[in-house]
Amino acid sequence: MLIQAKKNKVAPVSIFFLLYISRIVVSLTSAQLVTTGKMKTDILISICIAMFVTLLLALPAVLCYIKHKNPFDVKWIGLLYSIYFIFLAGVNISRFSYFASTTLNPDSQAWVFSLIVAVCACYGAYLGIESLSRFSAFGFILLVLAILAAVLCNLENFQQLNYYPLVSNDAQTIMKNIMYMTASSSESVIFLCLCKRVNGKAVKPFLWSIVAAFLTIFMLFMSAVGILGDSAALNAFPLYTMFQLAKIGLLERIDVFYISFWIFGIFIKSVLLIYCASISFPKMKNSVKCVISAALALALSIYLSEFVPVSNVKQIVYIVPFAVFCIVIPVATLIFKKRNYGDELVEKF
Q1: Mean pLDDT throughout 296-318?
Q2: What is the pTM of this model?
Q3: Rounded to the nearest 5 degrees, what angle is found at the Cα of 125, between the Cα atoms of 122 and 129?
Q4: Which site among 2, 41, 231, 320 is 20 to 30 Å from 295 CA-CA?
């Protein structure tokens, strides 16, 4: 039993890698899917405010962890969270499929990419959290190197005038951007799902992953605005365009780095969400739970890709589930659920 318990746990730094990548992947999609209005300097203000709002809204999850009142301990609530994880997996897979089928290979069908990602995510989730944590360390290093390469190799393309005027969007649009960016963060529920599988304290890596991810997003969007200027809003994938403009010596284009770390990123996040969905399911064989979760995520992804274009889905579809699962349920758990003394004794032991 002791060996099995250790086998199912990961180091706190792995939680940092997983949650950092999970948040970054959202911003690699089309900017129009996670923002509104003009992509100008005031979007950087929205990112900074969204970071503090996200940290504030993460407090219920942190308090649930500290007070040993985890909503996942209630079976029917765990089932609801499982559905939410499947929903998030389907959305993320559909966004990547949209990018791959419209930009990488316009002659291909989006459902093909959805199928490939879903199958890989199913297999990765079946392997478990340990394998995923090891792979996330490699993905994190690749991600950081690719972002630094894109920013540093684009220094000659920066135009300081692109940052003026400092405010281009009205107050309502700025507030919407703050809300959209905050609602794109599902890391608090992932944290609640995985916290029992962390071999050590999990709060600091969780909070630092939010800060580090938003600072990275700030740097990416600041670079995109400074390099692309007004044309940033005209590009379906402005960050990808920024990578296309970067040069390293004789290597004219390094957009392959963008494609590579997005593939790694979407794989890690999809595996993470399918894994969380499977362990939130009622008692069932692990392989069956992984297959069911991946199949449902695939079905949703194909629906969003083929029948309802992902770019046409209103933000309210993402905001309402975020409010329910990341805020309402954790707060209700803190108020109404009894303390889990079993977890407290295990931690002390």
Answers
A1: 85
A2: 0.90
A3: 170
A4: 320
